[in-house]
Amino acid sequence: MTSTTQPSHAISAIVVSLVLVALWPNLISGVQQKHEDRHQEAEDIRVSALTQIAYLSSFTIHFGAQIWMTFVSGLALYFSLPRHTFGLIQEILFPKYFTLGTGLSTISLISFVQLRRSTRPELANRNLAHWDSIDLLQIAALALTAFLELFVRLYLAPPMLRLMHVKHRFENRACIGQEVGHFNGTSNGFLERSRHYKATHKKFRQIHMTIAIINMLSFTCTCVHLLYIATRVTI
Fold first, then answer.
1. What's the pTM?
2. DSSP labels for the chain?
3. Range of the domain at 159
4. Predicted pLDDT at 33
5. N or C: which end of the chain has fewer CB within 10 A?
6. Domain total for the chain?
């Protein structure tokens, strides 16, 4: 907690958010309302504000993380660092990225459903069959995002990282792995004669490509929900 400044940044943001949530009902309550009605309205507004904060913060953080990992961090590191160094960094980032995405998508999904039910009381005690098709599409997009990222975290990332370590051991023996950018390992004479390496390399590429496709599908679902929000925001 004290080795870096990041915890203090998070604590500051949380404190400011809680203060605003606590003060907001008092700022917008009408002076002519009765005390009981004003208190009840303040409680409703506080709950709604907390849900909106959870919804907007989880979605925006998730979308920002997807943009950074997919289009900035991965490409910048890949074309700037030796391949093995880049692989070790991805070994640290991949599990955290997909774990974070799963958690944020789940929070976005739950808070979205709660907000839609609070703004449309007729849906409070009805199942999803009575919801509008647009709302159902958003629920499906958020749920699919959480499912895909959880699937990658549990079933694809671990074997890909294991295969990466096997590849690295073979390549270290061949005195390669410090190249920057793309390198076709099978063009090396020592590796070309190793069937185990070629099979490992092929399996690694297949899993890595599958993860990349799933990540883009997840990003597409996030963009679908971003479009939904954009069509309903007025400033």
1. 0.78
2. --SSSHHHHHHHHHHHHHHHHHHHHHHHS-TTS-HHHHHHHHHHHHHHHHHHHHHHHHHHHHHHHHHIIIIIIHHHHHTTSBHHHHHHHHHHHHHHHHHHHHHHHHHHHHHHHHHHHHH-GGGTTS-GGGS-HHHHHHHHHHHHHHHHHHHIIIIIHHHHHHHHHHHHHHHHHTT----BS---GGGSHHHHT-HHHHHHHHHHHHHHHHHHHHHHHHHHHHHHHHHHHHTT---
3. 47-180+188-232
4. 47
5. C
6. 1
Specify whether the CB–CB gap between 152 and 98 falls below 8 A: yes
Rounded Cα distance, 163 and 186, in Å: 15
Residue 36 pLDDT exceeds 60: no
> 98 CB contacts (<8 Å, ≥6 apart)?
149, 150, 152, 153, 157
Burial 29-42 (b: 16+ CB within 10 A, else e): eeeeeeeeebeeeb
Nearest-angstrom CA–CA distance, 107 and 74:
26
Tell me, yes or no, whether 22 lies in a domain.
Answer: no
> Which residue pairs, CB below 8 angstroms and at least 24 apart, start in 38-47?
46/21, 46/22
pLDDT given at position 47:
58
Classify residue 33: in a domain, yes or no: no
176 part of a folded domain: yes
Judge whether 201 lies within some domain.
yes
The residue ranking higher by pLDDT, 33 or 89, is 89
